[in-house]
From TrEMBL:
Domain of life: Archaea
Protein's recorded name: TrmB family transcriptional regulator
Source organism of the structure: Halobaculum lipolyticum
Ranges for domain Transcription regulator TrmB C-terminal: 112-349
InterPro entries from the UniProt entry: TrmB-like, Tscrpt_reg_TrmB_C, Tscrpt_reg_TrmB_N, WH-like_DNA-bd_sf, WH_DNA-bd_sf
Domain Transcription regulator TrmB N-terminal: 10-68
Pfam family, one: Regulator_TrmB
Listed PANTHER family: HTH-TYPE TRANSCRIPTIONAL REGULATOR TRMBL2
Family: Belongs to the transcriptional regulator TrmB family.
């Protein structure tokens, strides 16, 4: 680095122009009188004494009397530590500026476009950490491992977690042990897919697959927009694919992702002759308050016939009717309006014949 550049860099690190010029001159001279330092550095002679004393206070140099005021540079270890500390703080500040620019605060009803996948997955991790009842995730095995600690903690505190892992051609089918303790159920999609994380039916974190032409991410804190990602998750990333892990097995209780899945299974059994009891956790559609009920199935209502090859109704009203201690309670899915409860977690607790 040339002398002029070194002086400019020291100025950027916090020295005054005169301090930087005098210090660099003294590094070259080794030991010199104040007059010689002034001549070599271009610092005006009347100012050189104050400049040298200020450098001594910063521990860059030391001064002594030998007929006249003289100065010599300290061992650079202290200076180097100071400069490197400043560099570290500047680097940290640069990263913080970038992060704050990339991660605008998501207000309720807000959505943001971001350009880095790192931002998408970090925000997904924060959504998972704050979730209280449901997490849906589409990811690679690599990113699943990245999010594993947050997912494990969510599962431990009773959050319902479901994971769809996608793999590229030539990649092995994910080992079921990978999901142990992380989720209730996992499926495998042997095709590349976007990264999607949905939390509590309100927050969404989305990024295109890295090989996609489009390279951007979307962050959402809004039920309406998250609802769109939810349907994309169900239809493209969940419903068609093979189950590779099921924490519940074939026994009871059995939890369902959506009222539509439960109604589909109920229509295949004689629930009228063999009563089925269901516990519903959700929100009262009249007050918005959380509500939990448990009762016996008395009706399932699907007002149209589905032609979907999966038998999964992809649109329209689907309702589960329960007898809760003599009271009729209707349960709908995400966005329910006409039913009594919007069900967020539905669990079959009793069934003479397993669904």
């Amino acid at each position: 680095m040339e002398t002029e550049s070194l002086v400019e860099t020291l100025e950027a690190a916090g020295l005054s122009p005169y301090q930087a010029a005098a210090y660099v001159a003294l590094l070259d001279l080794g030991t010199a009188s104040a007059t010689d330092v002034a001549d070599a550095s271009g610092v005006p002679a009347p100012r050189i004494y104050d400049v040298l004393r200020s450098l001594e206070e910063l521990a860059y140099i030391e001064t002594y009397e030998e007929g006249s005021l003289r100065a010599r540079a300290h061992s650079p270890s202290g200076v180097l530590e100071d400069l490197r500390g400043r560099a570290t703080r500047l680097e940290a500040a640069a990263e913080e500026v970038e992060d704050r620019w990339e991660q605008p605060e998501l207000e309720a009803g807000g959505a943001s476009i971001v350009t880095r996948f790192r931002t998408v997955i970090e925000r997904a991790e924060s959504f998972i950490e704050d979730a209280t009842h449901q997490i849906l995730l589409s990811t690679t095995t690599r990113n699943l491992r990245r999010l594993a600690p947050a997912l494990r903690e969510a599962t431990d505190r009773g959050v319902s977690v479901r994971v769809s892992v996608h793999t590229a051609d030539g990649e092995d089918r994910p080992d079921p042990e990978l999901f142990d303790g992380l989720c209730l159920e996992a499926r495998h999609r042997p095709l590349p897919a976007p990264f999607v994380a949905l939390a509590d039916r309100r927050q969404a974190s989305f990024a295109h697959h890295p090989d996609s032409y489009d390279r951007y991410g979307v962050l959402v804190n809004d039920r309406t927009h998250t609802y769109v990602f939810y349907w994309y998750f169900l239809t493209c990333l969940w419903e068609p694919w093979e189950v590779v892990y099921d924490a519940a097995g074939d026994g009871l209780p059995r939890e369902y992702l959506d009222v539509r899945h439960l109604v589909r299974d109920l229509r295949a059994v004689d629930w009228a002759s063999d009563p089925v009891r269901v516990r519903v956790e959700g929100h009262d559609t009249g007050t918005g308050e959380e509500r939990t009920v448990e009762g016996t199935v008395v009706d399932v209502r699907v007002p149209f016939a589905s032609d979907a090859s999966t038998g999964f109704e992809l649109a329209g009203q689907v309702t589960l009717d329960l007898d809760v201690g003599g009271e009729h309670v209707s349960v709908g899915g995400w966005g329910a309006i006409v039913e009594d409860i919007e069900g967020t977690r539905l669990t079959v607790t009793e069934a003479p014949r397993l669904l």
